[in-house]
Amino acid sequence: RQTPLAVRVSVAKQSEYEKTDVGPPTMRPLRLVKRSLTVVLAVCALYICFVAFKGLFVQPSNVEITEPYRLEPTASATEDKPEWRKILLVAYGRSGSSLTSAIIDRHPDVFSIFEPLFTLEQRHPGRIKGPRQTLIQTKRMQDSYDNECIAILEIFLNCSFESMNVEDIGNFQLRNSPGSRLLWECSLSTLQKTPRAALDCFLKARQACLRHPVKLVKSVRFRGQAVAQMMARNRDLKVLYLVRDPRGTISSQNIAFWKLVTDETLNYTRKFCQMFREDLAAIQPLFDRYPDRIKLVRYETLAEKPLLVSEELYGFLGLSFTSDVREFVFNSTSAGHKSTYNFATDRANSTSAAYAWRRRIHFPVVQATDQFCADVYRKLGYLPLRSEAELTDFRYKVKTDATFHGVAI
Questions:
Q1: Counting beta carbons within 10 angstroms of the beta carbon of residue 20, is it exposed (0 to 12), middle (13 to 18) or buried (19 or more)?
Q2: Which residue ranges does the record assign to the Sulfotransferase domain (predicted)?
Q3: Which of 316, 274, 253, 381 is nearest to 89 (CA)?
Q4: First vs last C-alpha separation in the chain
Q5: For the chain, what is the domain count?
Q6: Which of 9, 258, 326, 349 is least enclosed by beta carbons within 10 angstroms?
Q7: Interatomic CA distance for residues 337 and 326, integer angstroms
Q8: Domain enclosing residue 308, as ranges
Q9: Region of 67 on the Ramachandran plot (φ > 0 left; ψ -120 to 50 alpha; else beta)
Q10: pTM of the full predicted structure?
Q11: How far apart are CA 37 and CA 52, in angstroms?
């Protein structure tokens, strides 16, 4: 039976189109769309690779990385609570935050980030870089700084390292905790190794972060109002607000950082107490708003009762207080070996270290702090000293067994 002419013509044309790879007129727009889509996808892939690399190119430093970090939690660690949790440890410099973060980081489920805001503070135009600087801080400048802080902290808490700023991944402070040390090591490898090696390092750090269900960020550069915003934005975030006797903080900061003379210290004391007062006012309502998500810890109480307070911290964070953690806390606070430098987290006697400022501070600074921080004292249970004799006589207490929002601190 003969095939109709129309069908033969159609088949002939189809055969012709297949030979020329052009296709019928009605198919040409579809082919163009497919080719355009392929080009778009290729461009997107190149952009993703660029973003992954853009945060890695910083100048290397001559620092040796000696301790590899665990890539995944141990089997026993995952028996606790495998859900994703975020922890923000907020404090002031020289208030015991390094010791506290080291205690929490001892748990194998925790991925820790050490001072991720350091480079932001250095480059932001609205931040005072030291007590000798004078700067009129406007609300707009403070809001800008807070917003950038929140963005950086959320990057770390979500393991979104591909979004990091080039300066922030090269932050040398990151080397001070095992988790963030991986990222800092990647910044070194970028110029010392091949691009492929740098990318492998970067992906390894992100993988390690994702495999740990608990993320801990420790920062002494985060203000109270920003804490309130962070808690509202991140419902899975828990906050530890670590405080210390302002006299101890100011004395220790001056020795470690500023080396101020007495008159300069008095001026800095006024500014510090004002900052402390503002932060406390912003954070205090959060204890009523989020009673199960925020906890205040006095460094002195941790120093005096390290095992008890550490176990309470672990309970608040939903972590198991294992025998390994208990041994670590004991060795870090009571073992009798002497610390070798100012920023060490191990203390021969943590109680003695917490009150060592009483032997070093000048009494005029004590008087100024007692005056400027009087309202802070009342809220946190610190006591003024009336004479130099009381300052050096340890029978006179500088704190009470206080409560804060109904909880012993």
A1: exposed
A2: 86-377
A3: 316
A4: 100
A5: 1
A6: 9
A7: 17
A8: 83-408
A9: beta
A10: 0.74
A11: 23
